[in-house]
């Protein structure tokens, strides 16, 4: 979490011949929002060999937030 209220999820695939599939569903997602191109309470990423991806979240409730997730 940055002082400005942003959180980032960084995925890096260092493999040369494997693709990373990342499905995340937030079972509790209060006081936060996913920033475009993602929305709602879940996202799916395909990270190819040598690629990286970033998912940004913004804290929208200044009193705090709660987050729980399920990842496959």
Order of helices and strands: EEEEEE
Q: What is the typical, i.e. mean, pLDDT?
A: 89
Radius of gyration, in Å, reads 13 Å
Shape descriptor:
elongated
State the helicity in percent bands. Answer: under 10%
- Structural class given helices, strands, pairing? mainly beta
Count the DSSP helices: 0
Number of strands: 6
- The total number of structural domains is 1
Major sheet size, sense and barrel closure: 3 strands, antiparallel
Brief overview:
This protein is mainly β. It has strands spanning 6-12, 20-30, 32-34, 42-47, 52-59, 66-71.
Keywords summarizing the entry:
72 residues; mainly beta; 3-stranded antiparallel β-sheet; 57% strand; 6 strands
Structure description:
Strands 1-5-3 form a 3-stranded antiparallel beta sheet, with no helix packed on it. Strands 4-2-6 form a 3-stranded antiparallel beta sheet, with no helix packed on it. The chain is elongated, with a radius of gyration of 13 Å. The protein has no helices and 6 strands. It has one domain (6-63). The chain is an all-beta fold and 72 residues long. The two termini are 23 Å apart.
Topology:
Layout: E1 6-12, E2 20-30, E3 32-34, E4 42-47, E5 52-59, E6 66-71
Antiparallel strand pairs: 1-5, 2-4, 2-6, 3-5
